[in-house]
């Protein structure tokens, strides 16, 4: 089952459940959901895709690689035969 289908199934399930509410309760729920969305938008909640954006640096890749290699520390001890 794809994510879109799961989301649609959830929405359909909620709709079937909420269909039994009174008109006043439905309007109250709509109001609360609207406020919830406004709060989410005002908090500027980052999307999932933005969490995996490119690595943003000013230095070149060669300098970054050199810096990483120079920072490595070897603690391996070898024993003579």
Description:
With 81 residues, the chain is an all-alpha fold. It is 58% helix and 0% strand. The protein contains three helices and no strands. It is elongated, with a radius of gyration of 27 Å. It starts with a helix and ends in a 10-residue tail after the last helix.
Give a brief outline of the structure.
It contains three helices and no strands. With 81 residues, the protein is mainly alpha-helical.
**What are the segments in which pLDDT stays under 50 over at least 5 consecutive residues?**
none
Order of helices and strands: HHH
Oligomerization? single chain
User: Counting H and I runs of at least 4 residues, what is the number of helices?
Assistant: 3
Number of DSSP strand runs: 0
Residue share in helices? 55-70%
How far is the N terminus from the C terminus?
59 Å
Structural class, by secondary structure, is mainly alpha
Strand content: under 5%
* Cα-based radius of gyration, to the nearest Å: 27 Å
Shape: elongated
Q: Mean pLDDT score, rounded?
A: 79
Largest sheet: none
Secondary-structure map with pairings?
Blueprint: H1 3-18, H2 23-42, H3 61-71
Search tags:
mainly alpha, elongated
């Amino acid at each position: 089952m794809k994510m879109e289908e799961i989301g649609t199934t959830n929405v359909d399930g909620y709709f079937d459940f909420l269909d039994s509410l009174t008109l006043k309760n439905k309007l109250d729920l709509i109001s609360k959901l609207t406020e919830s969305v406004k709060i989410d938008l005002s908090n500027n909640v980052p999307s999932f895709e933005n969490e995996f954006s490119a690595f943003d640096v000013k230095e070149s890749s060669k300098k970054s690689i050199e810096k990483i290699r120079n920072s490595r520390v070897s603690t391996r001890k070898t024993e003579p035969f």
